[in-house]
Amino acid sequence: MRYAITALAVLILNAGCSSGDTNQVQADLPIDRGSVQAGQGNSVTMRGKPLALSGSGMIEVGKALPSAVMSSNELKPVNLTEVKGKVRIISVVPSLDTPACEKQTHELSEENGGLDARVELITISMDLPFAQSRFAEAAKINNITFLSDYKNRSFGDNNGLLIEPLALLARAVIVTDKDNIVRYLQVVPELAALPDMQAAMEAARALL
């Protein structure tokens, strides 16, 4: 049942964002500069319909990034909190199969103003590692580390970014400093809108 709901969610997101010319559609996607609080009791919307966020923890600015074990494209466990020393921009997307998520990822990769030389760029989604690898190869993206939360949903749960009814992650962008302290956070209120990636990049630049 969970997989059927997730598939329906992706179809809704695609239907809401697609109308023929993919490049034109992506250019017309709105940027939402607002933010909602992560964690149990809060919510985002999809086409205006409220979707509750859940999780045992909650990400907050000024606090350490919550520990979470994800899977790399090589199916190896990765916990971002175990390694310090780099500023990170963490882009969180519901699914790379949707135009908004694709646009968000391309912007991080191609419009970062050279930050990729000094900042670690990461994309996290519920997509399987195999699907993430195919996406990166097709998009010719090699400056982003893709991590999957498919296995135990610990990133979504520990950060309060899990949309339980859809088994997807909320759209968000996170900037952490070299000690893994969250210095910038935007949890996008509307799933079909893009985050303010340029604001996140400016926040990362200020930490260098």
What is the strand and helix layout of this fold?
Blueprint: H1 2-17, H2 22-28, E1 43-46, E2 49-52, E3 69-71, E4 77-79, E5 88-92, H3 99-110, E6 120-125, H4 129-139, E7 145-148, H5 154-159, E8 162-163, E9 168-169, E10 172-176, E11 182-187, H6 197-206
Parallel strand pairs: 5-6, 6-7
Antiparallel strand pairs: 1-2, 3-4, 5-10, 8-9, 10-11
Which key features would you list for this structure?
208 residues, alpha+beta, Glutaredoxin, five-stranded mixed β-sheet, two-stranded antiparallel ribbon, 6 helices, 11 strands, globular, disordered N terminus
Concise account of the structure shown:
The protein is of the alpha+beta class and 208 residues long. It is 30% helix and 21% strand. It has helices at residues 2-17, 22-28, 99-110, 129-139, 154-159, 197-206; strands at residues 43-46, 49-52, 69-71, 77-79, 88-92, 120-125, 145-148, 162-163, 168-169, 172-176, 182-187.
3D architecture notes:
This protein has helices at 2-17, 22-28, 99-110, 129-139, 154-159, 197-206; strands spanning 43-46, 49-52, 69-71, 77-79, 88-92, 120-125, 145-148, 162-163, 168-169, 172-176, 182-187. Helix 2 (22-28) packs across helix 3 (99-110). The chain is globular, with a radius of gyration of 16 Å. The chain has 208 residues and is of the alpha+beta class. It has a 5-stranded mixed β-sheet with strand order 7-6-5-10-11. The protein has a single domain, classed as Glutaredoxin (3-Layer(aba) Sandwich), CATH 3.40.30. The model is unreliable at 1-5 and 15-26 (pLDDT under 50).
